[in-house]
TrEMBL record:
Transmembrane segments: none annotated. This is S9 family peptidase. It comes from Undibacterium umbellatum. Residues 47-408 form the Peptidase S9A N-terminal domain. Signal peptide: none annotated.
Length: 693
């Protein structure tokens, strides 16, 4: 071989070796190469000094929108090619169509009102005679429609129901006559979009509802009175924002009205933003006079009242004045000074959530060691007892008729569908068979509520586990860590039939419960993050799963807990799926631009999740699905976070997928998205049956 030809071959080999890492990278990325980033504009290039992806914030830029569409198409193509995904979706559809019962259970004058779901996912509102079990169908929704709320009148002759109709989720309040299931002509479409309850007057001839604000963003709406059969133009406001100049309300205040069959009073409860403490106003029904109604304030936020219930001339209060877990007070409304209220049930270690006032007693829903507890207390507090529940779980409804003894309640658990029960006057508990709970496989799975330690604190973290009976703690099974947030009842795990599709994969599920922070000004930036990391560490340390099998999912948009977790402790997880992430601080302004980028991006004293991502580290695989206009999180945050992960992740075998409906190439469907998400997570754990085709 000539020297020149030898030298030429050496050069060719050198070129091949130069590109070998790229060839190897292509082999490690069976899903293909990420869509290339567009070239930033001249102004975007100037910003790249501190943040090379900042130009992706410009949603008006045609190149950025085109990149988002390519990313969406790229992610959808990869997800569609995961074997096992279609079978997972098929199973989810079967579970969704299974009848489990839904909605509230209310009883008035011996008649029970509740909602069932049909096999084609339509909702039915029923009235059932508690004595004879005879049922009457009052309403069957159209395909796509849903029932928002229903409230029977105090005599059971009518029921008010909100019907939600897509697209745009238009909501109207209708009145049904229960005697013949006929619908009155009254059609109230100006109700507040977030309305959760309405109230009836004593003779069932009028309702009180919260009307939408006259100006968008001005306030949460006042309470109006509507006389059945009258024109909507004759409705009058009775309390709330803009009704009476001498009684002012803040923009964030939400007013609701409560009545009771055996009480001559109206009660107005005012929620101030996210605070749990209410202001309370009362008035006799015969004194109501539109905007001039002489409401009397009996409680302010400083009185620490979280809820109240009318009972004749008495008002029962849930107060946290002495202890956060709450005590029950009794106030005589003839002399309504809260300082004169008498303690009926003192505070204890049990957290009090709800009260139902029956003719014979108070029935109190409390939480003990992560499970619901039902107490029966005499109306004067002279005697109390704990009632024995059929199973450990979550009481999701509590309803008592003022004219009857005992209480109705719905009991469910993470592994048990809701069933309705009645606690009789003597304390016995019986199934009233309102809801049906078919056995679909949850009986093979254990539900366990745990209280684990929070690092550096004496506070405990609530963790719910779901796994198959007899599972060995060898760390070999996929573990899905999900996040739930809230206070009170929302801290308890509820039933979701769709979870079975995950558990049937010989996988476990863990739900970490993060308390809702009521005061945004005092919010700890690490609150939520500590809980997620502590839960992950616990699952790994106890052998439930391992870092190569642990995945995490955050379904609520506008959060940053999982983004923080994988940026600070990436070794804990193999994959993460999230709705739109809050990965950076945002300045107030027209375009909601990021406050800072690169290493200087600081949020609450800590680096933001986006800025914390650095080259040379291995990060979990990610799937981020951002829907435009949802919550307060701009979709460019999810795009930037994904783009940075694509660029810096040392572990090239773990994809960073991003998709959004903003680009117009992804049509949102809740069940299909869930199948995509779980198939992606199982694929990343190396689970059998989930590989890229």
């Amino acid at each position: 071989m000539s020297g020149s030809r030898y030298i030429q071959q050496i050069k060719q080999l050198a070129v091949l070796l130069t590109f070998w890492p790229v060839l190897a990278l292509a082999q490690l990325q069976p899903w293909g190469n990420y869509p290339a980033l567009p070239k930033p504009s001249a102004s975007g290039q100037a910003e790249q000094a501190d943040d090379r992806h900042r130009f992706l914030e410009s949603l008006s830029d045609a190149q950025v929108r085109a990149w988002m569409k390519k990313q969406t198409d790229f992610a959808n193509a990869a997800l569609a090619n995961i074997s096992g995904r279609d079978a997972l979706l098929k199973r989810l559809k079967v579970l969704q169509s299974t009848e489990f019962g839904a909605g509230s259970l209310l009883e008035v004058r011996g008649m029970q009102f509740f909602v069932r779901i049909t096999a084609d996912n339509r909702q039915q509102l029923f009235m059932r005679n508690a004595a004879t079990n005879a049922e009457r169908l009052l309403l069957l929704t159209e395909i796509g429609q849903s029932i928002g709320l229903f409230t029977p009148s105090v005599d059971g002759s009518h029921v008010a129901v909100t019907i939600i109709t897509p697209p745009g989720q238009r909501q109207s309040l209708r009145i049904i006559k229960t005697g013949d299931a006929s619908m009155l002509k009254d059609n109230l479409e100006m109700i507040a979009a977030d309305i959760k309850d309405v109230a009836w007057n004593a003779d069932s001839t009028a309702i009180y509802y919260r009307k939408s604000a006259t100006k968008p963003g001005a306030d949460r709406g006042a309470i109006w009175q509507h006389l059945l059969g009258s024109k909507l133009e004759t409705d009058v406001p009775v309390i709330g924002p803009g009704v009476n100049k001498s009684r002012r309300f803040a923009v964030s205040d939400i007013v609701s009205i409560r009545t009771r069959a055996n009480s001559p009073y109206l009660l107005a409860a005012v929620q101030h933003g996210h605070n749990q403490e209410r202001s309370l106003y009362v008035i006799k029904q015969d004194q109501l006079n539109g905007a001039a109604s002489p409401w009397q304030r009996i409680a302010a936020p400083a009185d620490k009242v979280r809820n109240a219930w009318l009972a004749g001339e008495q008002l029962y209060l849930l107060s946290t004045k002495k202890k956060n877990t709450g005590a029950i007070l009794k106030l005589d409304l003839k002399t309504p000074q809260i300082s004169a209220a008498k303690e009926v049930l003192p505070a204890s270690s049990d957290e009090l959530l709800d009260v139902a006032v029956a003719r014979n007693a108070l029935y109190i829903h409390a939480v003990e060691a992560g499970y619901s507890k039902l107490m029966k207390v005499e109306l004067d507090g002279s005697k109390q007892e704990d009632l024995s529940l059929p199973r450990s779980g979550r009481i999701s409804d509590l309803s008592a008729d003022a004219d009857s003894e005992g209480v109705l309640f719905v009991l469910e658990a993470a592994n048990a569908a809701p069933l309705a029960y009645r606690a009789l006057a003597g304390g016995q508990v019986r199934n009233v068979e309102v809801f049906r709970a078919p056995q679909v496989g949850f009986h093979r799975f254990v539900s366990k509520n745990l209280s684990i330690s929070r690092p550096g604190s004496n506070k405990k973290i609530a963790l719910t586990l779901l796994y198959s009976e007899g599972m060995e703690l060898d760390g070999k099974r996929p573990g899905l860590l999900t996040v739930d947030t809230g206070t009170g009842l929302s801290k308890l795990a509820r039933f979701d039939a769709l979870r079975l599709a995950w558990l049937e994969q010989d996988a476990l599920m863990a739900i970490v419960h993060i308390p809702a922070n009521e005061n945004a000004k005092q919010k700890n930036p690490n609150e939520g993050l500590d809980e997620v990391i502590a839960a992950a560490d616990y699952l790994i340390a106890e052998g439930y799963t391992s870092p190569k099998k642990l995945v995490a999912q955050e379904t609520t948009p506008g959060k940053r807990w999982l983004a923080q977790a994988i940026s600070q402790r990436p070794e804990l997880f193999v994959a993460m799926q999230s709705a739109a992430v809050l990965s950076e601080a945002v300045t107030a302004g027209k375009n909601q631009k990021s406050n800072a980028g690169g290493k200087s991006n600081v949020t609450g004293g800590n680096l933001s999740p986006y800025a914390s991502l650095s080259a040379g580290r291995s990060y979990p695989a990610t799937l981020i699905s951002a829907r435009f206009g949802l919550a307060d999180t701009p979709i460019w945050m999810s795009g930037k976070f994904s783009a940075r992960l694509q660029a810096v992740n040392e572990e090239k075998s773990r994809p960073a997928l991003f998709r959004t409906d903003f680009a117009g190439s992804w049509k949102y469907d809740a069940l299909s998205e869930l199948a995509d998400n779980w198939a992606f997570l199982l694929w990343q754990t190396g689970h059998k049956g989930f590989v890229l085709k």
